Each structure stands twice: as structure tokens, then as C-alpha cells.
Amino acid sequence: MGGAGVTAKSAIEGLHLQPEELKEPPLPEVTRLLDANGKEFAQFYYENRESVKLDQIADVMKTAIVAIEDYRFYEHGAIDVEGTARAAIKNFSGGGVVQGGSSITQQYVKLVLVNSAETKEEQEAAVAPTLARKLKELRYALAIEEKYTKSEILERYLNISYFGAGAYGIQAAAKRFFDKPASELTLWEAATLAGAVQNPSVTDPNLGKAHRQRLLERRNVVLNRMQELGKITKEEAEEAKAKKLGYKDVPVPGGCDQSDYPYFCLYVQHEILNNEEFGKTPEARKKFLQRGGLTIKTTLDPQAQKASEKAIRKYVKTTDKPVAAQAMVVPGTGAIKAMAASRKFGQNKKKNEISYNLVADVAHGGGTGFQAGSTFKPFTLLTALSQGMKLNDGFSTGSGYNAPSNAAFRDCKGNRVGEPSHTVHNSSEGGGGFKTLTTGTLGSVNTFFMKLEEVVGLCETVKTAQKLGIKRADGQPLKEYETFTLGINEMDPVTVAAAYATIGARGAYCKPMAITEIRDRNNKATSYKPKCKQVLDEEVADAASHIMSGVFTKGTMSGVGGIGRPAAGKTGTTDAYTAAWFAGYTPDLASAVSIGDPRGAFKHDLIGVTIGGRYYSYVYGASISGPIWKESMIGALKGVEATPFTPVNMERFGGCSAGRCAPPPKKKPVEVDGDNGGGGNDDGAFDVATPPDGWGDANGGAPIVP
């Protein structure tokens, strides 16, 4: 034995090996998501690891690992010549590999090389049984011994090692195996984990009874070795060996499917993977997310989230085929406060779970969305107001609309898209007659908005929508047809909520944001601020809010009602009842709610359906989406002082323009508040002679103000 040791030592010295610097990339660690209050709601990882300092590890654990893996660790350098020689002799006499001779330092080097490998070939090279690899490993080990103290090497070794059952590092292993931190490990628990390191695939307790038995036997080997070395007494060893394995199989939260708020979690995950702020390449961003050991503070507001979930549960069941989805966004910041859906997130189709983000677009893990319907009409309204039209400017409309020629509409490439043979009809939500910007919006009159889009321009309307962040959920270019104003494009709630938040913020569009701060493993914080841009004239936004606030009292949501504070919004019922929406806002919070069938909206429409235990002949925007919006907004804004809208500039938008006023009434108007002007509606919705408060008269006079 001595001769072999001298020979090995002489051979190593004869190689004239020089230390070689080892690159030690940060270890993959768990990334945690926090809500706006700092409470964790999700975590994901490439490897389940939580690095700790050596003083956070029980002394008995350090003793056990050194005893079984490298008992002369504190006495030798990078290589244990005596141990290597002893292993060589045993392997020679045993006719195979009976005992390993690598020191803890050498094992650490190998694990770093495996951890750093980015390809399968690099991983295989890191463990190849070749002399060249062993010599390179030894050069790295020499450098590590010069760079760190023994305690530092042991700390790094315990944090990088894999123990089985998906646990990387001693802290994760202690929690996974025994439901306690590494600092509280007992003798028999420490011996169990020390025994698992040698060949975790063989002793992984998660793989069945045989594996657990092998782990138990390996634990006892460690205890015997500790006794041999005088680290524990025979009595302590026997007492520890009498213990059962004690594996607790503690579930480790990981992945969005295990989060309380899976859709928000998915959004954050994809935001990092797609945003160059977090890495120049997709691979760099993936590493940043999976290996970063990050703490990500988000905009998620538990109060708003719970209010959304509660309202959705009230009207739509998790077992229903149609699904409701909602997003809440703050005007002026773009902060996403809540993302919820009626379906549970997951892979189990038998339980009606769904495996993509129902609330967001494809870029954030979502699907293709649903046609937005009449929630697109405000973009035409905003375009008209931007072009100088007044609240009571209008047109006579019939029950059907046909483009006057194929040149009536042009897309933003100058192509003619109007189809004179296609007739657009009004839904039962809105009738024909003379309609103004105000009455046409409140009644959601299709034929009026087709005529309005013809007047202001299709491309101009598309550009307005784009300024407010409108883009298709599937990432494809917007469909620029004459029915654009009727919401033929498939959308997601986050995008629609952010667009409506722009109106609530008086024309300031803010890109939806879910992340406010990221702290790295070294506790270095990077803050992320709102990205906003003024895209509308403030007074134009004020005028739109003035009109759309009447939706709750005089329009399509009058049967549902408001939320007890200034609010504005728009229902959205699509052609053939394939989907239904409500989008609305206050100056403090905006929200969009959609409902549709993800199996295929046109094949599975919302006609004659039972949703939430209630039967609906037809599902309108105000049937389900509207009530969900109302109840969730009330809950989300509880305790928040109401902010009023900025009053409309009546000098600029009041009354009507010459040639666009309502025709004179057929009967003598009744004087109201001293104004002899008659109302401009002939659809029977309101008394002609007594227009509602705030509406202009038929002759373009001053509006009637309460």
C-alpha cells in the first residue's frame, strides 16, 4: 500500500501539472414570484436548489459527508494520493470499479463541468473515463484548492450535489426528504443524505420500494463508517440504524400549474422569455429565468385577483365548455392587477383543465382569443372625435348597411376592401334611425358605426386602435376589412383592457406590465418602470369617456347598472353570438371580460347554452361578461377613493356640426329647462321632446345640462 502510494505521488509530480482556472457559472436556483404585497405565489426552476452558507448546515451533516466521501479531506490537497492508491488496489483486486478515489474537491470540479455543459456532447465529455479528462480535472482541482479554503469547498460541494428525488443541494434535499432545513438535520437524516450522493439514481426514494431499501442500506454504511472513524459511538450508530428511512416525499411547488394564480405566472414567465430587456437571445433569457435564482416582484394585486375570481365563479362553472376570462389593468401605468379565468389551468382534459393562458395573447402563453365584437366601436368613436366631430353629430341609419361602392373603404395599404353586396344588420341591442355619436354608441348600433367608419376612414380607425395597443391575440396582422369597427379581430383580455385603460388615462397608452422589480441571487435589485406614451388628445379621451359613461344608465348595460363611481365602458356581442365581451374603466382601473368556447367559437356559439347553471337563449355582452365586470370591479376598488373623469369640453364637443344635426322633430317640442330644442332620437328609445340630461338639441344649440 505504501509502495503504491509513493509510486502514485511520484507519477503526479512527474507530470508537472499546473493549476488551471475553472469557470464556475452560477448554480441554477429557484426563481420566485411575489405579488404586489411581497407574498410568494409561484416558483419555477431548472433545478430545485436553494444555496445556503456552511453555517446554515448542521455540523452532523458536514461530518457525515466527509466521513463517507473523503475522510482525509482536511489533510490532503487537490488529490488524496493515499485514497487514490487504495482505490486503485481495491479495483485491481476486485476486477472492476469497487471504490472511487476522487476527493471532494475533484468531485466538485466534475459537478461544475457537468453543470456548465450546454450540450449532450459536453456533458458526456465532463464524465468521460479518460486519462485526459482526469488530468484536466486535476489541474482544475489544484486551482480550486488554491482559491478556496476547505470550508468554502465543502460548502460549494454540498450546494451543487444532487441527492435524488429532484433535489439539488443540501437545503432542497433536507426539505424534500425530511421537511426541514439543512440546519436541523439529525444524525440518521444526515447519514441518509450523505449516502444518497454517491449514486442518486440507484437510491432515489421516489422511484419505488427497492430504491428506498437501497437508500436505507446506504445510510447504514455511512453510520458504520462514522463509527469506524470515531465520529459517533457504537450506541449512537445502533440507535440511528434502528430508525426507519423516514422519507416524507414533500411536494415541491414548481411551475405555473401549481401556482394559485397560474395565468399571471404564465404571463410573467413568457414576458421574460420574449423581452430583450432580460437577455439578448432566447437562450440567454431562458437561462436568466431558469438558472437565475431570481425574486420577481409583480403587479399582481391579491384583492383585485380574488374579486375577479369570485365574480367569475358566480357566473361560470369550471366544468362549463364556454370559458370566461378577465384582465385588470391600471390606467396611467399599465400595471396588470389581475388575470383570472373560469377554467383551471392544467393538462387534465377530463377535468376540463386548459393548458394555455386564456387571458393573454400567444406571445404570453395564450391562445388565439375571441372576436372582440362591439368593444371595437370606441376606436371609431375616438377617430371621429379626433377629426372634430361633436357629441351630437350623426346620420340617419337603417336596419341594414351596404357600402355605397367598393371604394368606400380602403385599408392602410390603399387596397379597396368595401363589399357593396354584403349587408350589415343591427343586432337586437341597437335599432336604426337617426343616431349621433352619443346615441349610436349607447345603443351599439352596427349600421351607424359602419357609416361612421365610412366617413372617418377605415385606415384611420385602424391606426387609432393600434395607438391604443390593439393587436391580434395570435400575433398576425390586424384584419383591415370594412367590418373592422364591429370587432372581427380575435383579441385577448389583457390587450383590450390596456386599450380601454388608455381612454381612462386621458389618452396615455401604457404597455401592459407585470414585473416591477427583479432581485438576483446576490440581492441586487433592478426596477422596471411603466412605459407610457400620449397617443390621444386628452380632451378627445374625455369626450369619449363622457359618452361611454352613459352605457350604464342609458345604454346596453342599463339592465346591469354601474359600480357606484364614475365609470365608462362598452359591451361587445359578436356576429352570430360566437363570443361576448364587456370592457370598461374608471380613472383608477380598467378591465376586460370575454366569454367564448375555446373548442371553436363558430362551431360552438353562445346560442341556447347553459352557463353557470343558467340557460341563455342568446349570450350578449351584458348577459355574463357585464355582470362579472361589475362585481369584480366593485371588489377590486373597495377601499380606493373614487376619481372622477375630467369633464368634457363642451365648447369643443357640445352640440352638433352643420349638416350633421338631427332632422327637426315632427311635433312641437316641449320646453325643458328653458331650452326649446327637441331631442334628436326617433328610434323610440327616449321621448322625442324630453332628451336625457347632457344631450344636445336637434338644432345644434347648447346641450341640456342638469
UniProtKB/TrEMBL annotation:
InterPro entries: Beta-lactam/transpept-like, Glyco_trans_51, Glycosyltr_51/Transpeptidase, Lysozyme-like_dom_sf, PBP_transglycosylase, PCN-bd_Tpept. It catalyses: Preferential cleavage: (Ac)2-L-Lys-D-Ala-|-D-Ala. Also transpeptidation of peptidyl-alanyl moieties that are N-acyl substituents of D-alanine; [GlcNAc-(1->4)-Mur2Ac(oyl-L-Ala-gamma-D-Glu-L-Lys-D-Ala-D-Ala)](n)-di-trans,octa-cis-undecaprenyl diphosphate + beta-D-GlcNAc-(1->4)-Mur2Ac(oyl-L-Ala-gamma-D-Glu-L-Lys-D-Ala-D-Ala)-di-trans,octa-cis-undecaprenyl diphosphate = [GlcNAc-(1->4)-Mur2Ac(oyl-L-Ala-gamma-D-Glu-L-Lys-D-Ala-D-Ala)](n+1)-di-trans,octa-cis-undecaprenyl diphosphate + di-trans,octa-cis-undecaprenyl diphosphate + H(+). Gene3D superfamilies: Biosynthetic peptidoglycan transglycosylase-like, DD-peptidase/beta-lactamase superfamily. Residues 330-588 form the Penicillin-binding protein transpeptidase domain. Residues 38-227 form the Glycosyl transferase family domain. PANTHER family: BINDING PROTEIN TRANSPEPTIDASE, PUTATIVE-RELATED, PEPTIDOGLYCAN GLYCOSYLTRANSFERASE. Residues 657-706 are annotated as: Disordered. The keyword Cytoplasm does not apply. This is Transglycosylase domain-containing protein. It comes from the Bacteria. Keywords: Carboxypeptidase, Glycosyltransferase, Hydrolase, Multifunctional enzyme, Protease, Transferase. The keyword Zinc does not apply. It comes from Planomonospora alba. Coiled coil: none annotated.
